[in-house]
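At this stage, I wrote out one protein's amino acid sequence and its backbone structure tokens, and that material follows here:
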Amino acid sequence: MDAGTSTGFYAGVLAGCGCQVDAADLSAGMLRQAARRHPSPLISWRQVNLERSGWEADTYDGITVGATLNETACPALFLAEINRLLRPGGGLWLMYVTHAPGPAQTAFGHLGGLHFPDLAWISRHLPGLTLEHATQSGVVQFALWRRSS
């Protein structure tokens, strides 16, 4: 699954590698745009709130999450749902913007409702998952988590 697919970048990459992908997003407009950009029979475009999908647990072998983690209304609920949907042995790939000191990011956080988590906060919200790899480029954090089998 590509959680919070937006314009479908990760869904397109995964489908290009031969993966069957559920590309999920809250916005119907973003899903239409993504489907135009990445037409593939391997991608199912699904409008859903991933803070409470109602989908069956242990559904996905792998989940990608771009900057959606920064933009979701309740990141803790979002991570709990993603965690619930990941199968034993499955991988979770996260990309998000971490907190950087300064007035601009503080204003976005207060006025725009954006969230800027760190690895420790995310770790507390992903029980049962182990951090396998993490790297940071500027304020952008990339992390791969794995659910034990």
